[in-house]
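Purpose: get a first structural picture of the assembly so the mutagenesis plan has something to point at.
Setup: two entries, given in the order below. No constraints added.
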Amino acid sequence: MKILVCISHVPDTTSKINFTDGDTRFDTNGVQFVINPNDEFGLTRAMWFKEKQGASITVVNVGGPETEPTLRKALAIGADEAIRVNTEPTDGFFVAKQLAKIVADGGFDLIIAGRESIDYNGGMVPGMLATLVNANFVNTCIGLEINDNDVTAIREIDGGKETLKTSLPLVIGGQKGLVEESDLRIPNMRGIMMARQKKLTVAEPVEATKETTAVKFENPAPKGAVKLVSPDNLDELVSLLHNEAKVI
Amino acid sequence: MSVLVYTETENGKFKKTAFEVASYAKEVAAMMGTSVTAIAINAENATELGSYGVDKVLMVKNEKLNTFNAKAYADTLKQAADKEQAKVIIVSSSADSKFMAPILAVKLNAGYASNVVSLPESTSPFKVKRTAFSNKAFNITEITTDVKLVGVSKNSFGLKENTATASEEAFAPELNNDDFTIKVESVDKATGKVTIADADIVVSGGRGLKGPENWNMIENLAEVLGAATACSKPVSDMGWRPHSEHVGQTGKPVASNLYIAIGISGAIQHLAGINASKVKVVINNDPEAPFFKAADYGVVGDAFEVVPRLTEKLKEFKANNA
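Result (structure tokens, whole complex):
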């Protein structure tokens, strides 16, 4: 089985979010970048398939040279090779079109992407990619078993979960639950050394127009101070929630 | 050329979010000087939609669509959009709509903005405000395609009643086998319990609860308020509560009217998940807990004493205000 894992290069979850150039660009100054957490769950599930059932894993990212350390980390975790599509990821549809070319060229059976990236949160790339390459698609995927061509996938729905049957080729939008948090892997020294020898191909982008433009960013309005209520006067809290906040 | 809105149903009844997206669509249509057409799949009765500004309802009756199927639903909406020559299509932010919308966007060649939190700043050019960076910021997005697809965040707009009457029209999309290559084997849904996605109030517990055996305290408070229960990341990682209750950057985002955090210190990733909630209450015995900086109301005290007392106070309040 040939697996492609789509990797987003995103700010670490603890990052403070600031903007520059008149609030038109994310300020990367002092920000650590990591593998998008939803993609990391997917990469770990791909490793499970590789180790238990036999599979090759290619990781792909759409981005400039600055994203290569993130791809190298994925190689250190255990992916076999990496592809970087050499262009700025301007919007979801543009990224999906770049990935569709990689899928078409590589003949992948299973494409694992995160349900959304934690920076732009568009949540559109996996579904768009599946539609562009005419593959089956399961979003918010929290369980995946594959036997030959038969797929059993579990997806999270509002208030529960749903078990689905389908076939390869398949694209999933994965998330926490696909593997346990404790199964996530930290690259060891041997993995890091081996990753240096693994193939990282730079692919040139295909022509694609973007459909949305991030015109401007805003930080949330500053928050007023918390109103503290004594634990001995909970009537006051009930009254505030009813009369002031009007939420009960 | 109308605004098309997808109004979700469950067991033939409209979900509350259906009325929210209909209310939103009405305002967008007013900005554009056009009408609202809703598409309702296997709805028993569509008269309620008129009360939220819908002018016409395309009624789809098809047994094959009894269970949600993203591809088939996207195909249905695509055909409805073509028929109505809709330039703007509005969907909700439910798990199903987020599953379907990217497929629909490709079929319609439409730019898609998800997690939209307010009406468009302008409709020409079409600019909407959406959340980004896991609710730590907002982004004004311009959709540059001829057809626009907008996913509205829950609770961001509310319900706006109208007195219009909606006309109904039968609509039979042409579906083919290719739409049904994914089959639903089983659905496991908690019944009779408020879900995080639908809840107006969420009661959430953290490590301060000391163990899963103490969760009845959270459940009792949630029951009085008609709230959903949730938890912080360490709690789901330790297996005290299921992953589906984990609120935060890598878990579920919560956009409730009231979020009550009990024994949660307020890590930046957790705060990102609840930023979109309107009113936040924090109960924690550590006055230095970072959550107090993000909260509207706070109680510094032992959760094991405060929460049962608060539950009793709220019971009294409910009884007096029933």
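The mean pLDDT of chain B is 95.
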